[in-house]
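Appendix B. Chain record.
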Amino acid sequence: MTKSELIAELAATNPHLRGADVELIVATIFDQITGALARGERVELRGFGAFTVKRRNARTGRNPRTGEAVPVDEKAVPFFKAGKELRDRVNRGVRGARG
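Structure tokens predicted for this chain:
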């Protein structure tokens, strides 16, 4: 599901909200999560999961085309860990689709 599909579905299931308002709500939520991660904070949505930032150390990589050694700088990478409720709901859905 893309961001625009999410907005369209939320607007369709909440007819009392204008499409522009739904778009603003979704953008605000994503902006807040992004901002918190940029500040190094953890974002936990109970029943859904937790967003954190993990650090990757500097290392020497390889250019796959030439095999040449290339220095790779240290970087921060966003990480998501699904919560138990989300995992359970996804697994119930997968089992139901197979059966």
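Further analysis of this model is presented in Appendix C.
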